[in-house]
Amino acid sequence: SVKMEEHDTPGETEDGKQKENESTEKQSDTAGGGEASGKAAEETTARYNRLKLFDKVIQKSLNRFIENASFKVFSSKFRPLYKENVKRMEEIHNQFTVVLQKSIQEDIIKLMEEGKIESKFQELDKLENEAKDNPEPAWRPSGVPEQDFCSFLMPYYQKQKAYMKLELKKIQAENAALAERVRAGREKIAQTEQCISTDVDEWNAKVIDFERVTSSLNPVDFFDE
């Protein structure tokens, strides 16, 4: 038997390579898009993981609570009715568990809305993200209340001390400016008093001179002439 060998023509080979390149590019784009969508999904999951965990815990607790109100426990409390009509008792129990579960869920939703649980979880996510960028270790209690109390209050008092020093400098500068104004005012008053005293002395001297001149004249001789 003779085996037939197939040979690709140059045109067919180039077309095949082009198709392979296009396929590779599409796969790369798909992978890139998959990575981007994966990151977005991770961010969304990280954002709502606390709320989902909270809902999961609440739902699990609710289920356990409903399990404790099983038909066996429920029927044991109403033994005469159970013996009289078991089917009716099952219907009452089913209706009771449905109403109870619905009522508890409504109360939980109301408490979450009043306590703003979802916003609190978002704040926790925000604090967690900020803590990732902070290289400094978070504060932890040392076990010594006095030391923890001092470590908490000392930074506050140091800030207050720095603030008081700054305010004291401002007040001192204002007082110095006021003291300079008072000194300048006193000097001006002293100069005014000195000028008044000089004027008074000159006026007194003139009055004395005038009295001496008038006393040296003889009024009779003056009128006789």
TrEMBL record:
Task: Name the InterPro entries on file.
Answer: PMF1/Nnf1
* Record's keyword terms, sorted: Cell cycle, Cell division, Centromere, Chromosome, Kinetochore, Mitosis, Nucleus
> Which residue stretches belong to region Disordered?
1-43
CC per GO annotation: MIS12/MIND type complex; nucleus
Indicate whether Cell cycle appears among the record's keywords. Answer: yes
GO biological process terms on file: cell division; chromosome segregation
For this protein, the record's Pfam families field holds:
Nnf1 (PF03980)
Subcellular localization, per the record? Answer: Chromosome, Centromere, Kinetochore; Nucleus
Is Cell wall biogenesis/degradation there in the keyword field? Answer: no
Say which domain of life the source belongs to.
Answer: Eukaryota
Q: What segments bear the compositional bias annotation Basic and acidic residues?
A: 1-28
Q: What is this protein called?
A: Si:dkey-6i22.5
